[in-house]
Specification:
alpha/beta, 12 helices, 3 domains
Length: 319
């Protein structure tokens, strides 16, 4: 995980929207400037970056892909940038008692967040072309699956012949599109030696099927470069304490990337039934008095830790 090696003097905070960027500049050596608004286009961003002398760090939020042009131009200009976790920034803003929300306030908060937390902020690295395409295909498949589930639920309700016919036609079309996207995902992985090797290593673990392996490759590109606790935390399966004084509450899993937590739950359920060391671990936990959901949570963490270790070994072999 790449991070800055020294405290930044000048940090830019970018509040991103579809058409515009609100920018706030935070400085250590002089008063900060007022926020300004520029177009969210490559040409406007390049002009803005040329108009300022120096930038040590730029910070922005993920905004449904509208930040991609900004990140590309920042990297092209050689500026270190960090794409933040929106929940962390919201907590940072609330810690100052700020209740109002505007683009200018958000841009200022992002800049000050970068100034304050720079030591722990991982720098954004551009994804490889194949992995970027994989992420887009996996996201599209997830959208189609959501539509499929919604249409299936509607088809079970009372409806007339016309509605039933429409639902059946819609389901047939959506299922066809899902199959087409899955074929594209398979073809893309087969064409890429790096993705293909990682995909096969991940599938060799009981409970991890083709869909889960492809989704992890798309949504967790950091896998194979992290420490085990970092991997569990990023995947949203790290247990968090809930203690106060003599009270010892239940540890709960929260934070991280929630879409991965759902997938790892499915993987853990499958692994608990498949022969192998993961099933033995699950049964041992149950015999020791652990609740089934607690044992499944332990399997979820074990799966992501094992996958991270396997991909780290694979990366070492390839390098």
């Amino acid at each position: 995980m790449a991070v800055l090696q020294q405290a930044p003097d000048i940090v830019l905070g970018f509040d991103v929207s579809k058409d515009t960027l609100t920018v706030f500049e935070a400085r250590s050596s002089s008063p900060s400037s007022k926020p300004c608004v520029i177009d969210n286009s490559a040409a406007a961003i390049r002009r803005f970056l040329k108009s300022i002398d120096r930038v040590d760090l730029a910070v922005c939020e993920p905004t449904g892909g509208h930040e991609h042009v900004l990140l590309a131009e920042l990297l092209a200009a050689g500026i270190a940038c960090h794409r933040v976790d929106a929940l962390k920034v919201k907590a940072f803003i609330r810690s100052f008692g700020t209740l109002a929300k505007t683009d200018a306030l958000d841009a200022e908060a992002l800049a000050r967040y970068g100034k304050d937390r720079w030591e722990r902020l991982s720098l954004f690295l551009p994804p490889e072309a194949d992995r970027k395409m994989l992420a887009a295909l996996v996201a599209r498949r997830e959208d189609l699956v959501a539509i499929k589930v919604a249409e299936q639920n509607r088809s079970k309700g009372p409806a007339g012949k016309v509605i039933k016919t429409s639902l059946a036609a819609m389901l047939k079309a959506v299922i066809g599109q899902i199959e087409a996207i899955e074929a594209e995902i398979k073809a893309l992985i087969d064409r890429s030696p790096q993705l293909r090797a990682a995909f096969r290593h991940m599938q060799s673990l009981p409970g991890v099927g083709a869909v889960i392996a492809a989704t992890l490759l798309a949504h967790m590109p950091e896998l194979g470069t992290l420490q085990r606790r970092q991997a569990a935390s990023l995947a949203g399966v790290a247990p968090h304490a809930n203690d106060s004084g003599q009270f010892k509450g239940h540890r709960t899993m929260r934070g991280g990337r929630s879409e991965l937590r759902r997938l790892l739950f499915l993987a853990a359920m499958a692994a608990s039934r498949a022969k192998g060391p993961l099933q033995e671990m699950y049964q041992r936990l149950i015999q020791n008095g652990k609740k089934r959901i607690v044992a499944i949570g332990a399997l979820m963490r074990k799966i992501i830790v094992i996958l991270n270790a396997r991909l780290r070994e694979l990366n070492a072999q390839q390098s």
